[in-house]
Amino acid sequence: MHEMSVALAVVDQVEQAARSRGAVGVESVSLDVGELAGVVPDALAFCFELACAGTVLEGAELFTRSVPGTARCGTCADVWDVGMPPQLICPACGNAAADLVSGRELRISEVRWADVEAEADAAHVRIREPIPQES
Amino acid sequence: MCRVVDLQQAVLAKNEAAAQILRTELTTRGTTVVNLLSSPGSGKTALLERELLLARERGVPAAALTADLATENDAERLARSGVPVKQILTDGLCHLEADMLARHLHNWLPEDTRLLFVENVGNLVCPASYDLGESLRVVLASVTEGEDKPLKYPTAFGLAHLVVVTKTDMAEPAAFDEAVFRTNVQQVNPGVEVVLTSVRSGEGAGCLLDRALSAAEGSAVHAPVMAQARA
Ligand SMILES: Nc1nc2c(ncn2[C@@H]2O[C@H](COP(=O)(O)OP(=O)(O)O)[C@@H](O)[C@H]2O)c(=O)[nH]1
Ligand SMILES: [Mg+2]
Ligand SMILES: [Zn+2]
Ligand SMILES: [Zn+2]
User: Fold this and answer.
1) Which domains can be identified in chain A, with CATH numbers?
2) What is the complex's ipTM, to 2 decimals?
3) What architecture (CATH level 2) is domain B13-221?
4) Nearest residue CA, atom 12 of ligand 1?
5) How far does CA B182 lie from the centroid of its chain?
6) Beta carbons of A5 and B126 less than 8 Å apart
7) Arithmetic mean of pLDDT, B135-161
């Protein structure tokens, strides 16, 4: 199942961050899941629990926030909710959307560590997201 | 007391990075990857059989990799074209990932390969989320699958560089409404090209090969709106 790969990728990334900051546990992980990301939140929650077993994330809660798809027209600058199935033709002028403003994200938005030892601010992990390349 | 840390990180970042590395590595050595996605039975293998034969006739060095949950039947079918073919058995995994592909290419892909066709696992859900380092992503649907297929699988069709309709020889009995299908494709992927094919009637013979070659020569491929995500 696809959601298992996604859950494993989340666990892998949080584990790495945990190692680098010496975290002993994880309270919760929050994910932004775009409507067009192709992930079913319920299936993901199920897989997440399995994927956490035996790792520093054992017992961590998963919060998913669904992000609606919105598109922007390059011609008239209209911005609209694309809905599902998505409508990527501008409802105002009939031209193709220039881009999706939101809806394809599949991103860890927040991790709550269970460690008590507060570290210096330098411990903040912020990893820049690569721009999805499709060309 | 717990501390909150912003770990703003794309979940599939690792695959995307691996795909980018593979794309650069392959295009540098002159190999262009074509990723074929569809539901099981849409006709990926049948279309590839025909296009590989044509590639061979025209002297285009091609190779093919075919992924299935089980059985090597597709590889056997494709190998009849005479081009190098490899089967990937995913052992239940429902999609290919870039690092899996890279592992399979290692020590196998002939140096002079111009076009590498990858038949993804028959599934329109998750393969759409995994970039394999392809330069051309092709999504297929047969005339018997219904005109609303693009609306049911918007992410797959929305990220396609080319949409191929297969089995058009059966369009009449299936009462396939081409205009409705095209409208639905345009809704989720404005501007993408839709080509009609049949391995029975010969319609669209060579279209996949031609589009792949033109991508290999550096012609701009379609840029799907969905891929222009600022997420
Ligand atoms: N009538 C007709 N049948 C086709 C055509 N292409 C494929 N098929 C049949 O559809 C079935 C599935 O094709 P296959 O290539 O194995 O699909 P795949 O699962 O996408 O690789 C086979 O029985 C093929 O013979 C076509 O153009 N016309
Ligand atoms: Mg096949
Ligand atoms: Zn999958
Ligand atoms: Zn507009």
Assistant:
1) 2-115 (3.30.2320.80)
2) 0.88
3) 3-Layer(aba) Sandwich (3.40)
4) B41
5) 19
6) yes
7) 98
